[in-house]
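Encode chain A's predicted structure.
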Amino acid sequence: MKRVLVTGAGGFIGSHLARRLKSEGCWVRGIDLKRPEFSATACDEFTVGDLRDFSTAAQALVGIEDVYQLAADMGGAGYIFTGEHDAAVMHNSATINLNILEAGRKAGVRRYFYSSSACIYPERNQLDPDNPICSEDSAYPAAPDSEYGWEKLFSERLYFAYARNYGIEVHVARFHNIFGPEGTWCGGKEKAPAAICRKVAEVGNDGEIEIWGDGKQTRSFLYIDECVEGVRRLMESNFAGPVNIGSEEMVTINQLAEYAMKIAGKKLKIRHIPGPLGVRGRNSDNRLISEKLGWAPSSSLYSGLETTYRWIEKQVEANKTAQASIA
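Encoded structure for chain A:
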């Protein structure tokens, strides 16, 4: 039975990944600042701990063969692009990666997966919402549009440096907007699909929702099950990466909102307001993952959004019921 560590196992992607690994017969240790919020962890052992502390990281790595490093200080546009959290984002995430690699080296860990981000891609290549350039080889000369992206790019290089100098095996993926049930849906760290689903669920028919900017900025969104499949295929391959794990089904944010309204059966008005936006356009380029792994995600945005909306709708209703009982 392979012994694996999932860092960030209390979070959205980490909790889903731990469930997948457990279903495959692995013994799974998880660690995070918190336990999963919406369901019990699938991990055999779960530690509530801070990986910014070297001794905590070292203890988590004892007896571990494979590490899936997903722990990071992150959130949606409302968290990443205001500039208010830049120092914390860079310090916290970099410290985690430095500790995980060095403590793992000392513990004899031989294999790592690292979750990087599409935020590493240069802003100059994402100004045209209809034709963004996000091929893996376009990352340099580097010019991410956020400190979150700069930290992710630094950490990619850190993992590959450890691979070269210490002979460990690394696999690096650049995630593109992962969404699905059991993800953060309120509080300021939620991403666009969850935020829009929440807004649509909260208002009655003929109501109004707010969207930052003109809504013509483009993105692609990948359903969580597809993300986990891509991670596992990459980890079991002989390809180190970095490689995009994302969808090529690009939509505007306005279109995303229209999908959510259709799923909800509501006709709502959209009010565009100022807010943090990130790059003008972004879409996953899946040529390399198709070439190296013979795989690319296949589920549609609409089908994944439908499942996600129904889950968020239940959270909204449960929240309303709880508030009513308090009142």
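The chain has a mean pLDDT of 94.
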